[in-house]
Every structure is written in structure tokens, then in C-alpha cells.
Amino acid sequence: MLLFPKTSTAALLAASLALIGCETTWLASNDRKPTPAVQPDDFVSEAQASDDADDPGVTTQVSTDPADPASEDGSAAEQAPRSEQALPVDAMVGHINGEAVYADQIFDVNLIAQLESFGRRYDSEEFRGMAQGVIQDRLQGIIINKLILGEAERNLKEAQRRGIENRIQAEREELLRFYGQGSLAKAKAEFREDRGKELEQYLREFREELVVGSYIRSKVLPKIVVNQRDVERYYADHLDRYQQPDQRTIRLIRALDEGSAQAIADGLRKRRSFEKLAADPELNQYNPNQAGIFNSGNPIPGDKVIGLEPVNAALLELDSGEHAGPITVGDATFFVQVVERTSGKQISLAEAQIEIEKKLRAAQFEKHALRFRMDLLKRGSYSNPAEMGQKLLDIASARYDQ
User: Fold this and answer.
1) Chain centroid to CA 168: how far?
2) What is the pLDDT of residue 23?
3) 216 touches 369 (CB < 8 A)
4) At what angle do helices 124-155 and 349-379 cross, to 10 degrees?
5) Helix 199-220 and helix 349-379, axial crossing angle in degrees, nearest 10
6) Which of 288, 361, 373, 379 is the most exposed place for a label (fewest CB within 10 A)?
7) Cβ neighbour number for residue 62 with a 10 Å cutoff
8) Both 150 and 82 in a single domain?
9) Could you tell me which residue, 195 or 26, shows the higher pLDDT?
10) Could you tell me which of 165, 219, 191, 195 has the C-alpha nearest to residue 375?
11) How far apart are CA 85 and CA 234, in angstroms?
12) How far, in Å, CA of 332 to CA of 226, rounded?
């Protein structure tokens, strides 16, 4: 079965994981005639398009030029120049689960806004390249969503169905109270103004989200198993997240000679700024241009801050703003200051247990959910996505390429 050509698994996962929040206005309306289930190879070809002219629910093209009528056999007129081009209004582009899919079900408000923006910014060739990507993403999401919705509806248990209907009723009543203070007409008007859609449309979408979410959980959750060994392994593999050491930013002074060391010590006793002393090239020979800043000012984690052990041992006893010295190492004399000390994070396995379990369960859910969606795509009934995408791209070019 042909699925989505030139589409990576990552892209498919992105489309499928966005399922629950996906717009669902693409569902065929009740006044359109149901069509027999089809497989991808059964896709209605261009040669069959004229057969749809007998169906009053399908309009393939409407000419914008009264002098350019459709031909007698019902096929669309040849394309005119762009300003006079025939625009497809409600073309059928394929089938999903035996239901016809129409162009206006794919072109939702968000997609139209993107396409109109592309039309204003790009020439025709660039427009088609940009439009192809967003149309493909939208189509993939719709196919996955509708396949899952159809299977979920067929497999809902009565108790699940009652629970979902109760949730919908509670949501409806809450919206009526919030928007209309009990008045249905007022609630509908205020909801439409606030949300940009009809109240009943929102409730239909809300129901579909509940149905799909309930079904996916029923299929995926039983497969999720997280044991203590998994938790311990994750903790050990990510120890840096849970056992973070202290970090220090330091300044260092290396006195030029014994006289400079004495001047630095006297200055510190008189509460002169360590930074100013470190910036004096007549006193400090270590990085005076940056006032003795060590490691380019980057915080150093752990207890091995500097390679000079006596200096390192001294600074481990210091807190932010404190200094130590003189410290003699061989023939050299050092002074050190901790500019800032940030306490590390020490989280035990017991403290991290719940968080790690949630992470592992979420990762397993994502893996099993992706496998479930891929299996559904393999056994699902829908028209060839590449052909549907091409039809939609042609329609987008006619409608939105300026």
C-alpha cells in the first residue's frame, strides 16, 4: 500500500502526535452521500471525475467568467489566464474510510492563512514548493485522525460511550453558563465571537477528541510496563541531572614579586576591591586586562577548580565574594576570590522516582502510539495520499497563488 512518499518517520510522528488537538472540521457533512469504502489503489482518477458531475453534492469547478461555460459532458472549462481562471469550489479529492473528502474540508482557516501569505510573498514556482509541504502535513493529520476516529467509533464499549456523552453534556452546560448565563441563543452568539466557530461545531470536535483519546489509551496503556530496574538504569544514565556539583566563578592574582604580594595583602586588609587589585598590571601578572578572571568567567563545576592544589583547597572553603591569600606555591604567591558560588543539586533516587517513572511511561506511550498509528495506516482504507495532495496543490495554486 502506498502511504506518504518522500515523508520521513519523524514527520509522520509529528503529524500523528498532534492528533488530539487537530482540527476536525474536515469530516464529511451529513447532506453528502456516503461512498463505498476504497483502498488507495481505487483512488478516483482524473478520467473518472466526470462521473461525479451526476452527484449534486460534488462540484468540481465553477467558472468566474460567464462567457466560459463548462463543456456539455460536465468537465471543467480549460484554464483561462490567472485573472479569469476557473476556481475549484468544492472538488472531491479522494476518500477516507469510504467517505468523500472535499477540498474545503482540508483548507481550514489556518491553512488558508498560510497559503494566502505564500501567495503574496512568492512567485508561482516557489508558492507550489511552500504550499506542498503545509498541505501534505495537513492531509497526513486528517487521514490519521479520521482512520483512528472511524475505528474508535466502531470499537467503543457502551460504558465508554456513556462516559463520553456525559463529559460532552457537562462541557455544554458549563459553556452555556459561562457564555450565556443559561441562555442558549446568547451563549451561541458570545461563543462564536470569542472562539471564531459555532458552539455545536466545537462540541462535535470535543467529542471526537474524547473518542480518539479514549481509544488510543485503551490500545496503548496496557502495553506500558515500567519496573524498578528501568528507573534505576535511567537514574544512573542521567546522574548529571540529579547529582549536580557546586559551581564557582573565580578571580586569580599571581603577584609579580614579594613586594607586589605584600602590597596586595595590605590592600585587602584595608578593604580595597579584589577586582581593582587584580586589574593592576604592576601587581598582578595573571590576566590583569580582565581583572584576573579565570576560565573566561565560565562557572567551573565540582571540586577540581584549579590545578594548583593549595589554591584549590583554599577556594573550596570560600563562599561568594570571599577571598584567600597569600598562598605560596613554589616561588609564586597567589590570591584567589570566589566571585560567585552556585550550590549544586543533589536529588536521590527515591526523590526522583516518580518523575522518572512518568518520563519512562511517556516515552513508551509515544513509541507504542506511533506503532499503533503506523499499523492503522497500513490496514486503513483511503485514497492515494500523493494523488490527493496533488489535487489539493492544484486547487491551492488556483485559489491562493497571487
Assistant:
1) 27
2) 33
3) yes
4) 100
5) 110
6) 379
7) 13
8) yes
9) 195
10) 219
11) 60
12) 58
Q: For residue 354, is it within any domain?
A: no
Other beta carbons within 10 angstroms of residue 355's beta carbon come to: 15
What's the pLDDT tens digit per position in 291-349? Answer: 999 988 888 888 888 888 899 999 988 989 999 989 998 889 999 999 999 888 888 99
Write down the residue that cell numbers 460532552 correspond to.
Answer: 168
Q: Give the number of other CB atoms < 10 A from CB of residue 245.
A: 16
Domain span including residue 339? 246-343
Q: What is the pLDDT of residues 125-150, one digit of tens each?
A: 999 999 999 999 989 888 888 888 88
Q: Whole-prediction pTM value?
A: 0.51
For the stretch 59-94, pLDDT in tens is 333 333 333 333 334 443 344 344 334 445 478 889
Question: How many domains would you assign to the chain?
Answer: 2
* Percentage above 90 pLDDT, the chain: 30
Asked whether residue 66 falls in the same domain as residue 152, the answer is yes
User: pLDDT tier at 17 (50, 70, 90 boundaries)?
Assistant: very low
Contacts of 241 (CB under 8 A, 6+ apart): 347
Cis peptide bond N-terminal to 326, omega within 30? yes
Least confident of 19-33, 209-223, 343-357: 19-33
